[in-house]
Amino acid sequence: MITLSARALITGAFTTLALSTPMGAASASPVDPPSPQTQKDLDQSMRGEAFANASYRLYAAQAERENLPSVARLFERTADVEHGEHFRESAELSGLVRSDAENLRAAEAGEIYESRTMYPGFARDAKAGGDTRAAKRFSEIARDEGKHARAFGAALRAVESGAAESGGGAMPKPPEAEPEQVPQGPPEVRAQRTKTDLDKALHGEALAYAKYHEFAEHAENPAVGKLFRGAADVELHEHFAGEAKLAGLVGDTRANLTKAVAGERYESQTMYPTFAKRAEEAGDSQAAARFSNDAQDEAGHARAFQQALDELS
To answer: Bias regions of kind Low complexity — which residues (predicted)?
Structure first.
């Protein structure tokens, strides 16, 4: 994985909706729920894997712009592993997905928090720090999240009343994303507080995309699945992309590979081995094995990124 900084990978918080809130499993709930520490580590794993998935896809697009198709494919394949394997398997162990109603209720609560508290606060911080462009972007996203909250609320009422099953236009239409390109560029913000808020926002949007994607994949009602999928696309292709541009997340391919190597080495040598040791000590053998396997995968990713970097040199 890779983050805005080495520390951000570990401490970046998704304040929209704490993953530690019990939400069920992506396919089948674990027989024994993980210990509180293991749950915390699973939450952190999902947060980082979601951010890696989103970041690597932007890095892949940059590699394509530089006419480096093999590097672009490497970033894309790794992004697929981070989301399709690492995030998904941690989601199953932690219990992420439940019924449509429970998933909609959790999503609505998260979007309400973002639209009424988190993003308005970030906008005030950015304005106070002189980052007017970021303040405008945060305010725009707050309005979008308010729309998502209302849509999730309406869908929840339709599901709970049974109207979602009878059709008749009871379910709201899914939002449509307007994808934003993110070429390499310097940060567009100056204040440290704005940078910190951006880091939290980026992790939150990446995590929202990954979560909503899982909710969509396991939706009991096709209309609920479409709603989650549409919201997921907005979170990734509009919100994350716009914030990534403000943060200067994408550099040239050499810089992107360098960050990727550092992040993957940290995970393989420090983060996941620590998680595995703690899980083993807590008796969470499934999680311990999962973390150990992830450490091996990330070591392989680090070697592949380093090889690509060496070839560029």
So the answer is: 180-189
d(CA 7, CA 4) in angstroms, rounded, equals: 8
Give the residue, 96 or 164, on which the prediction is more confident.
96
Cα Dmax for the chain: 61
- How far is the C-alpha of 207 from the C-alpha of 29, rounded, in Å? 20
Write out pLDDT tens, residues 241-295.
999 999 999 999 999 999 999 999 999 999 999 999 999 999 999 999 999 999 9
CA torsion sign for 225, 76, 18, 280 is: positive
Query: Sign of torsion, CA 23 225 239 49?
Result: positive
Domain ranges of the chain: 6-312
Q: CA-CA distance, 259 to 264, in Å (whole number)? A: 9
**Both structure tokens of 230:** 């549409």
What tens digit of pLDDT does each residue of 138-172 get? 999 999 999 999 999 999 999 999 888 765 568 99
SS (H, E, C) the chain: CCCCCHHHHHHCCCCCCCCCCCCCCCCCCCCCCCCHHHHHHHHHHHHHHHHHHHHHHHHHHHHHHCCCHHHHHHHHHHHHHHHHHHHHHHHHHHCCCCCHHHHHHHHHHHHHHHHHHHHHHHHHHHHHCCCHHHHHHHHHHHHHHHHHHHHHHHHHHHHHHCHHHHCCCCCCCCCCCCCCCCCCCCCCCCCHHHHHHHHHHHHHHHHHHHHHHHHHHCCCCHHHHHHHHHHHHHHHHHHHHHHHHHHCCCCCHHHHHHHHHHHHHHHHHHHHHHHHHHHHHCCCHHHHHHHHHHHHHHHHHHHHHHHHHHHHC
Domain covering 6-312: architecture: Up-down Bundle (1.20)
